[in-house]
Structures are given as C-alpha cells and as structure tokens.
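Lab channel / #folding
Pinned by the channel admin:
"Please post every new chain as: sequence first, then the structure tokens as a reply. Keep commentary short and put observations after the output so the thread stays searchable."

First post following the new format, from NK:
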Amino acid sequence: MERIENNEIMDIQDIILKVDNVSKSFKLIGNEELKVIDGLNLSIPKGKLIIIKGRSGSGKTTLLNILGALDAATSGEVTFMDRQYSLLSEEEKEYIRRYDMGFVFQSIALIPIMNAYENIDFVLRNAGFRDDRDGRIREVLSLVGLSDRITHYPAQLSGGEQQRTAIARAIAHRPKVVFADEPTGALDTSTGIVVVKLFKELIKREGITVIMTTHDEGLMDMADIVIRLGEN
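Reply from TO:
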C-alpha cells in the first residue's frame, strides 16, 4: 500500500510526471512472482521536493527507476511532460534521460581520476551542452558551496563534499527533474540534512523538481510531498 501526504489538487500544467495504475512484479524461481508496486497512481508537480519513504524492500528504488525511465513497469503508464513511456523507443528514453533528467546515487559514482570540475565537464560534454561550459561548471559548484574545491579529486573530498559534487553534476545541464536514490544514506544525520536543504535551495534557484528516496523519518518535514510505500 502507498500513502501520499500533502498531495493537493493541481492544475494539469503543473504536473511533470503522472503515474497511472502502475504495477511492477519480478519473477521468482518457478512460476511465482513478487509484486513490489501494485496499482500506484501519482501526480508529481513541478518545482517541488518529493520524498519517497519506505523500509528496505518496499519498492522505493524500483519506483524511482520506473519514473526515471531506467526500468519499465509491468503494467500501467508513466507520462513525463506529455510523453508516455510505453510509446517511446529505448533511444527516445535515453534522450530524455540525457537532456531532461539528472541522477544522484547513494554510491555517488564520481569518476576518481577526474577532479570536481572535470567530473561536471564530462557530463556537460556528454549532454551536448552548448552554453558556456566553464561558466556553468563554476556556477553549479558555487551553488553547492564548493567553489574552493574545483581542482580537488574525489579522494580529497569528504563524503558530504562528494555528494554535493554529484548534485552539482546532476543539475549542471539544467534538467527538468533530478532523481536521487538514498542520497543521504551514507552520510551522518547533520550532513544529510545539509544535502536536503541544498535540494530545497536548488529547487528555488533552478526551478527543478527533485524526487528522492530515503528511509530516514527525520527528513520528512522538509518535503513538499511524501510518498510512503509499504504502509497501510
């Protein structure tokens, strides 16, 4: 079961992602199936912080992957900015992920042989960013408070600094939505709160939507909308 808090009635133009009766099952040994998501309906607004909360195995990462077009639902439909995933080719989904979406992972996954500047530049080049790359890199590193860490390599950064670099990398190409899977999971509570506050500030400044997963109950009050999975 899923429970949605603070999900006010929204104008259709304010919705960036719509989930219609989505279910996801995984085949087990034999003919058995494990249903992780069952008939989920959501309307996710633009410019908000959405937190998907749930215990381990509740389906929050699975849902994030479906929303980010990294995995397909077993049934139902996901619509991103009027584009229905079921009607898109893999190439079209890849285009959306590259240009309209950003991703932040718990493992951070910075390229170890590149410094903070180069990690962001790599993503901008891959996204075909045509504006001033140098200016944008310095801008996003300033937004996350790392102007003095531009030439530092991942091994020279703290865990919180690495995660902030990963966030700067995820927003550099000006995506419409950022998906963050347990971005505070490897951080202490105080550093995790700093990361979520940073998301809130970036939503305000950049106009993005942030959808993140967490199991930390202490972060719920910072969300605009909380989606609770696996609760009655």
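NK: The chain has a mean pLDDT of 89.
TO: also worth noting, The two ends are 6 Å apart (CA to CA).
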